[in-house]
Amino acid sequence: MEIGGQERFEFFKSDFFKGASIIALIFDLARPDTFDRLEKYYNEIRVKAGNIPIILVGNKKDLEKELGILIGKKKILDVVHRYSLLEYIETSALSGLNIKKLFDKMALLALMDIRSPPKLGQIIDKENFKFKVVLAGPAAVGKTTILRTLVDKEFTEQYKLTIGLDTTTQTFEILDEEISQEVKESIDKAWNSLDKLIKEHLTTQMIETTQTETVMTQYDNTNNPSGSSQNRRFKSKYNFLGLIIILICIIIAIVIILNSLN
Ligand SMILES: Nc1nc2c(ncn2[C@@H]2O[C@H](COP(=O)(O)OP(=O)(O)OP(=O)(O)O)[C@@H](O)[C@H]2O)c(=O)[nH]1
Ligand SMILES: [Mg+2]
Predict the structure, then answer these.
(1) Which residue has the CA at smallest separation from atom 32 of ligand 1?
(2) How far apart are the CA of 113 and the centre of ligand 2, in A?
(3) Among 21-35, 106-120, 124-138, 155-169, where is mean pLDDT lowest?
(4) Can you tell me which atom of ligand 1 is nearest the CA of 97?
């Protein structure tokens, strides 16, 4: 998911970070003002999404060829340390540089951050996981274009600002050897806690059902002691009524037959 960076659409953003596993905070390497505005975005993320892992992305690397380096590496790495960001990566949606790598990294980092119990819907089965990833940052840094380059494998030069958000789903394969033993253990732990949670939920449901049945039985026996005999009386009353109806039908049939014989 990526969210529009236009600050005039601020009111849209309240729930965008809900359930997110990782955030890519993006700035434009060719526009230092977008880098200077990162603090505002960082603070907003911390308020709305707590201690969520963040990866810093400097996009439009291709423009450095003609414009030169406008934001020094030291300045960027200072921000990475100051905000305890997980990583810094430079991309170009135009050339495709590091786009796939960025999402592979995010998938792996999200997997490394899996908790016990996991977030709702995060674990599909022991080998398939679903993570919500958010691309955030100032306007026109390339959030939509990065997503389009990843999904459609094509670059769009035309700028169309995102109002609110844009979402897409992509599948990434992480090789077994890329996952450390430690991460495998935390996946197992998360899976087991989920298993336990499901079992607990089922047991609670079963107990609730049994209790409901018990209450009903008790209600019959205690609150209405004559209830069962009353039921029986009702039943025999209905049987008796049925018998009378059948008898009436037989009598009518005999009368009709006798009439037709005459
Ligand atoms: N040269 C170059 N241009 C890029 C790159 N990525 C995006 N652009 C251009 O930058 C402009 C803005 O890109 P968008 O992807 O629409 O920006 P955004 O971050 O989604 O902007 P908002 O939706 O307003 O928040 C477009 O004209 C893109 O073509 C890049 O890597 N290199
Ligand atoms: Mg956009």
Answers:
(1) 60
(2) 27
(3) 155-169
(4) 31
Alpha-carbon distance of 41 to 37, in angstroms, equals: 7
Return the ligand 1 atom nearest residue 158 CA: 27
Output phi, psi for 217, to 5 deg: -65, -45
Q: Is the dihedral of CA 110, 113, 118, 119 positive or negative?
A: negative
User: φ, ψ for residue 165 (rounded to 5)?
Assistant: -145, 165
Secondary structure of 2-38 as H, E, C letters = EECCCHHHHHHHCCCCCCCCEEEEEEECCCHHHHHCH
Confidence category of residue 26, pLDDT binned at 50, 70, 90: very high
Residue of 90, 69, 71 whose CA lies nearest to 24: 90
Looking at the CA of residue 155, tell me the nearest atom of ligand 1. Answer: 29
Q: Which residues pair with 24 in a beta bridge?
A: 55, 135
HSE-up of 130 (CA within 13 Å, CB side)? 11
Q: Which ligand is nearest to the CA of 57?
A: 1
Instruction: Please provide the size of the chain in residues.
Output: 262
